[in-house]
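[agent] plan:
  1. take the single chain provided in the ticket
  2. run structure prediction with default settings
  3. attach structure tokens to the ticket
  4. add a short note for the reviewer (M.T.)
[agent] executing step 1
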Amino acid sequence: MAVDAGTEPRKRETALASASGGDVARTAGKATAAAVVVVAIAFGLWKVRSIIIILLLALTFAAAIRPGVEWRRPGTGSPSATG
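[agent] step 2 finished; step 3 output follows
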């Protein structure tokens, strides 16, 4: 198998090497912006955690008492306090 001396070996291009400087900067900017958004959302949820906890407790309590409320609803054959 003969090798042609006039040919140069191919250079392997990586993603970063083939991308222009503007593309790398744009990708880094997008990644930074996404990280800032995630941190901002986490911080906002941390600040309102007490409200979220109260809301979840209220939903749990409402789900727990629903069978009793449905049982006491008029027209469903439930006992009536007024006679």
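[agent] step 4 note for reviewer: The chain is about 65% helix and 0% strand.
[agent] ticket updated
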